[in-house]
Structure formats: structure tokens, C-alpha cells
């Protein structure tokens, strides 16, 4: 999970009540930026 950059997803799966607001409500703009960067890297 760490190598793929998806550790946050594993943590959300393990502790959804504690982390859902932080990861899914307060941070969505960062997810868009990260996804855009990953797609840009994949296109190289």
C-alpha cells in the first residue's frame, strides 16, 4: 500500500469512523491534485 501511495485508503478501511471526515470531507481537493499528478506521470 505504501509503494502504491494508497496507505490512506487502508487506514480509512481500518478506522472509517475516525478518518472518514478527515479524508473524504476535508481533503477532496488534494485527491484531485494527486490523481492529476499520477496520470501525468503515467503518460510519460
Question: Any overview of this molecule?
Answer:
The chain is an all-alpha fold and 44 residues long. The chain has one domain (7-42). It has helices at 7-14, 16-25, 28-42. Helix 1 packs across helix 2 (16-25). The two termini are 23 Å apart. The mean pLDDT is 82.
Computed over alpha carbons, the radius of gyration is 12 Å
Give the helices and strands as they follow along the chain: HHH
Distance between the termini: 23 Å
Number of domains: 1
Strand content: under 5%
| Structural class label | mainly alpha
Q: Can you tell me the residue ranges where pLDDT is under 50 for at least 5 consecutive residues?
A: none
Number of helices: 3
Main β-sheet description: none
Mean pLDDT: 82
